[in-house]
Structures are given as C-alpha cells and as structure tokens.
Amino acid sequence: MTTVAARKRSYGRVLLKLSGEALMGGQTFGIDQDVVNRIAAEIHEASTAGIQITLVLGGGNIFRGVNAGNTGMDRVTGDHMGMLATLINSLALQDSLEKAGVDTRVLSALEIRSVAEPYIRRRAIRHLEKGRVVLVAAGTGNPYFTTDSAAALRAMEVRADVLLKGTKVNGVYSADPMQYPDARLLKHVTYRQALQDGLKVMDATAISLCQDNDMPIGVFDMTKPGNILNALYGEGIGSFIKA
Hints:
Number of strands: 11
CATH superfamily of the largest domain: Acetylglutamate kinase-like
Number of helices: 8
Low-confidence stretches: none
Largest sheet: 9 strands, mixed
Shape: globular
Oligomer: single chain
C-alpha cells in the first residue's frame, strides 16, 4: 500500500457501510478472520492519516431478518435478530481494529450495555473528534429498516462528507451483473435515476434520505484488497450517486 504521507485525503469524515456477506470471505456462513483482519488494517491506515471513520456493518453473513420473514417468522422478531447479527460483526471488527492499534468504540441502537455503549449522536461525534473509529451497530434500532437506511441516517447525524458503500460488485450496474452479463457499469447516477430505475445498490428509503439531505453515495468493491483504503481516500470508487 502507498504510505500515509504520500496520499492526499479527499474526505475528513466518512460513513463506511460494509456488507455483512463480504465478511464471510470464501465461507458460506459466519466470519472469515483473515478478511476481518485485512479490513482492520486498511481502516487503521486511513484512521492514522486523520480520516474520521464511522462504520455500519450488515449482518447477512449471520442472519437476515427479511429472509426469516419470508419463511413465516414474525418480521419484527427477524429484524431484531438481524440487528444482533450486526452487533456480532461489529464486535469482531472492533477486536481486530484494537489489535491493530486503533482506538475503537461500538455504539448500539439496541441497549446492550455490557458489550456496547448506547448510540447517542453527540457521543458518536465526540469519539470521532478524539480520533476513534466508531462502529454503529443494530441498525436504527427499529424493525422494517435496513442497515442501508441506518447508514444513511447515521451519515447525516455525524455530518459525514460522504457515504461509502462497500459491496461484492464494483459499482452500480444497469441490471444485476450476476444475472445479466451485458449489464453496464454506471459511473455517475442521480438519486432520481437510482429510484426510478429500481437500481438495487441501496434500498429506496436510504437513497431518498440521502437525496433529501444531499449526501453523496460512493459504491465500490470491498472484496479486493486495498479497495477499502482507496475508497476512504476518495480513490477507486466505481460509481457515485448524487444530484
């Protein structure tokens, strides 16, 4: 990786949303520790350079509330279980970050005081100002809202410069590239286009919230080593969604 001193920061404060599924690595379930350690190393380098980072992790590698609802489980129960999955992922990444020497705090929208601080907006901002990486877990604390919506909400609350979403694809496509090989990568997409065309990069609630508050969304492939660090510096982002 390029040294910290040689790189120019594009952002001062970032909300980084990472897919839970990407934490599985080559596994079919759970957490691949090598992947978590690699993510922690990249975040460590960006944090050392002075970039203030708030993280929101998905929980799909452990449990997805929407899928549970489709099989007959009560949707509210399923969503609460999904929130706990995001907390598990956040604790795993906190452990790796602190072993890498990064001062980290986990703030949870569901109160579980023995393992995480309760999410309070001013507390989150104060941690960022002190140079700590903040992991915001348990979504919004409410059922029927995805972690994408939580990421959009927290990005506004902590006054981030940009919302960066790391996925398993390298940007926004005209259709699902896994199903349609001729799908085109769209480098620049407006909020309205993303909503009208039903582009599946984020749910409509999250995109609408970003549109209403003029929060740019950068989408990139987090599975390639070095890409998270590049995105935090404002480089190598596959697609931007903005006005």
